[in-house]
Design goal:
The structure is a homodimer.
Chain A (H helix, E strand, L loop, with lengths): L7 H5 L15 H9 L5 H19 L2 E4 L1 H16 L11 E5 L26 H8 L3 E6 L27 H8 L5 E6 L5 H7 L2 E4 L19 E6 L2 H11 L16 E4 L1 H4 L6 H16 L3 E4 L6 H26 L6 H12 L2 H25 L2 E5 L18 H6 L3 E8 L5 E7 L5 H14 L10
Parallel strand pairs in A: 2-3, 2-4, 7-8, 7-9
Antiparallel strand pairs in A: 1-3, 4-6, 5-6, 5-10, 9-11, 10-11
Chain lengths: ~450, ~450
């Protein structure tokens, strides 16, 4: 896939030697302080990331469109604002990448489609407007799989380029992992945020269903669609979440003092798909946490996973078909095999099976809340069955999709690296609306058992 | 401008001699009966209008995109539905054209922009969804002036092709007037529905501000933007309005028995721009109605028109600039002179002048309602100062824009033809939310003083 560059290279000629600080692997919080104190300009920061994109994109293919000139103009404006003493907050001047199913004004929303490659958005999606208001600098649109489903994208995993970065937020995860951008937006209907983040060794948050607006975003299955956030570091993820989360509604944390109890599921640990390398890493992580005083309880989910996955598949197929089938019949050439099969499946389901699935979904979301509250703990699970597979797939969403179905908030982060340098990640799942508490738990766990840091790939 | 045809011609080869009924100048109500009784199929009806487009478009240039294959497929589905006994109502199978700033799924929303010419809409605008649900068959997108402002479009007036059809809903009005489609959607921020309808000799309704959703439509100035409806005949306009109007909220008609009082404004009749030919036609129309028992009262508007037009210009410029200025700075080549000047003006206005205009707008909308109620009548005015000017302008919106500003419903229809075959039209203005009563008044007046019918132009 050829990257569209929007005059990127010409704008980047000025970058050479603009500043000595190498920011690609730095934390936003540190960079933010440098920006605020005038040691670094927003423009220099944007230039550094654009240079990193120019250097690494040829191997990674994480970007559907890079808006170098727009980003540099915005950076200039934000520098001028800062000089006038107006500081928008911790996202002021921080570059971000936006998954290419989310509308960004005056950039195409390609959605992995050939026909939509020049479909310029005429409005920002509300979530993009929030980012701009918080001072973020949009570097461009990151590669999505076609229509955010499972057909493989051109993007490579930065740690081993013949492997998948996961999907469908492939470009967002790969761009963050490769240090091309510190933050990115993705979306998840099955496992499209958590899986690529886990495969790329970065942090991600899929908030509670309904927490962030999905307006201005291509739907896959509206009953399951979530916006997701990605970052290289937990602190950066927290900053991004703080900028986007709805105003607190005064909902008290369900697990005010959840103690130090972690729940895990036999359905995950005994799943035949679980690879030995992941099993070992997870067990070791469990033990280290236990030694640090955390308690573990292995308990089955109150709702059979097989039911959840079956109903998830029905809702996904039916709603995707409802959105896409007319266009698919008209432009079959614009639909690769997996989304084609999904639409066919959706058209073949009976209304009854969809009705049943929707009823199950509603009830399951209520039941799981009560169960988590009674259990008094947080779920901790392997984020994926193992390491990223080769690039002819985006990997199996089976380990992530139940939490999209239940609509619970999920955080993923790496806990170990394989001997050949691939990340292994866990996911934490918390009660509905408890994103802050979940991020704070993730912080405790990752500080208790730190994952060894890696240098930038590529 | 080259018309994009979407395989139109190949689909039309089958049309020849498919039915003997010539429908281009027929009323929907009559056609609907023929469809319902199986004398005509929806597909044949669509084919006839597509054939008319193929024959006349080379002279009129009313279409930004014609979706012949999509329309014929939809017609087929609606025929099958009808055969199963499912009849959606009076719009079942009726072709319609949609102004090219309104999103129609899988067709580009070009907005008169070069860069947006391939910007495929990923959702129907809600108003388009309503049309589909009512059974309308979308033939394609009609030409708009660039961004629905005053820069001339490629479209010609069907009655004299060297004259303007008016703007910005140029293609919608010209297509209906030329018998290419019985119905069309337009939009009006100043006079963009009423002016082109009047210049093209057709019927149009600009409903009360806020009655129809403008979601999924390119904004020009959201405080003033309206969706508008166009048709060749009053009955067709009524059918279209019935399909789109919000569910009645039980608001009683303000003018339950308005009697037979018509109000007119000295500001219009003494306006130096009023052409003698229009002045004569309007006076004659007044006299004929008077002879039929209608009373006339010439009374000034309670709010000075000069104030209304000044504040209208401020709101229009400021809101257009707010939407467009970033894109205009980036792509100045995509903005022709008049919209460029509008954006410049908008950027130069003070916040105070905008605030003042918005306050005036709110108060004026309240005051005019009370005034109309006290006056107990309906406003009847020339729709335009005169006949359509040459094509280097879309005409002066000064006679239509006050009613966009005040947000009152307006109906326009022709009352006479000049000796060289150009239409002269009036506009009726009624109290807020009283579209049905206004259409009913228009029916009485047009039956009392009928406008001589014309054969199809071109």
């Amino acid at each position: 896939m050829a990257i569209r560059t929007f005059r990127m290279i010409s704008s980047l000629q000025a970058v050479q030697g603009s500043t000595g600080i190498m920011v690609s692997s730095a934390r936003i919080s540190g960079v933010g302080e440098a920006l605020r104190q005038g040691q670094l300009s927003v423009r220099q920061l944007a230039e550094q990331f654009l240079k990193r994109i120019a250097d690494a994109e040829g191997q990674i293919h994480a970007w559907a469109a890079v808006d170098a000139s727009g980003a540099l103009q915005e950076a200039q404006r934000l520098d001028e604002e800062a000089q006038r003493g107006h500081w928008r907050g911790p996202l002021h001047g921080i570059p971000i990448g936006i998954k290419d199913i989310i509308d960004v004004f005056d950039l195409p929303t390609g959605c992995g489609s050939q026909r939509w490659a020049n479909s310029y958005a005429r409005q920002d999606a509300p979530i993009v407007r929030q980012l701009r208001q918080a001072g973020a600098v949009i570097l461009g649109k990151t590669v999505t799989t076609p229509y955010a489903y499972l057909d493989p994208p051109p993007t490579c995993n930065p740690w081993q380029t013949e492997r998948t970065p996961g999907g469908s937020s492939s470009g967002s995860a790969a761009a963050v992992a490769a240090g091309m951008v510190p933050l990115a937006l993705g979306s998840q209907t099955g496992g499209s945020v958590i899986r690529p983040a886990a495969y790329c060794g970065i942090w991600a948050l899929k908030p509670t269903f309904g927490q962030l607006s999905t307006r201005g975003i291509l739907p896959l299955a509206p009953s399951l669609d979530h916006v997701g956030l990605m970052a290289g570091h937990l602190e950066d993820l927290q900053i991004l979440w703080s900028a986007l989360r709805p105003a607190p509604m005064g909902i008290p944390p369900l697990l005010e003092s959840p103690g130090r109890l972690l729940l895990t599921l036999p359905e995950y640990l005994q799943d035949p798909r679980l690879e030995p390398v992941m099993h070992r890493a997870f067990k070791q992580w469990q033990q280290q946490l236990e030694q640090a005083g955390w308690q573990w309880l292995e308990t089955p989910l109150p709702i059979p996973l097989v039911e959840i996955r079956r109903h998830h598949a029905v809702i996904l197929a039916v709603e995707a078909a409802a959105f896409h089938h007319g266009r698919w019949q008209r432009h079959p050439d614009d639909y690769p095999p997996k989304i084609t099969q999904l639409i066919r499946d959706g058209l073949n389901h009976s209304a009854w099976s969809y009705h049943e699935a929707r009823q199950h979904l509603r009830q399951a979301r209520r039941e799981i809340d009560a169960w988590l509250l009674r259990a008094g703990g947080w779920l901790a699970l392997p984020a994926t069955p193992g390491t990223p597979p080769p690039r002819d797939t985006t990997g199996d969403p089976a380990f992530q999709s139940p939490w999209s179905y239940l609509g619970l908030p999920v955080v993923t982060f790496p806990i170990a690296w394989t001997s050949d340098g691939l990340p292994l990640a866990v996911q934490l799942i918390g009660p509905r609306w408890q994103e802050e508490a979940l991020l704070s738990l993730a912080q405790q766990l990752s500080q208790t058992v730190p994952c060894p840091p890696r240098r930038l790939p590529v």
